[in-house]
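Let's sit down with a protein and look at its sequence and fold side by side. Please make up or recall a protein chain and show it to me in full. Label the sequence line and the structure token line clearly, so we can match residues to local backbone shapes. Go ahead whenever you are ready, and we will take it from there.
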Amino acid sequence: MSEHMRLFIAADLPQAFYPVLQQATQVLHTNASHMRRTPQRNLHLTMCFLGEVPPDIAQKIRHWFAALPGLSRPARSARIAAYGHFPSRKGHTLWAGLEVTEELTVFVAELAQGLKPWVAVDNRKWVPHITLARDAQLTHAMNDLLPQLPVSPPATLPGITLYHSQFTKSGMLYTPLETITE
């Protein structure tokens, strides 16, 4: 019997975002007694989390995903526009919020709808964000840090990828299975 695959669909980030996210993470780290940074190689914009999927279903999802029409470059435009946090068991999950196009938001809803035959889909409203750190213990209120956190001009998300996510001794390993662009 084959092992299940932990899958998610995410937009890859444009190179222009990385210096902005690095600067933001440094500001947050300077103002935290503890936080686990997301390695740069793992930064992405999650669109749909599929969870643990049996291999036969994973293969069907992979074929379905590969056949999807892509999005035009203008539809994949996004910018880093805000920052926030979600509570977690060991502190906060810190994130950079993105402003995205209406087309991208519709595409995410269509992804969720298309996945329903194979996986349970989260029905919560999509909040476009990039997770910067987990288990953060901030020494200042997030609102006090906002003036120090950089925003970005719009940039094009280079592609949308179906990933296989694996826990390893050296952290999470995200393996791209299929990528769509236009």
The chain has one domain: 5-180. The beta strands are 5-11, 32-37, 45-53, 77-88, 91-100, 129-138, 155-156, 160-168, 171-180.
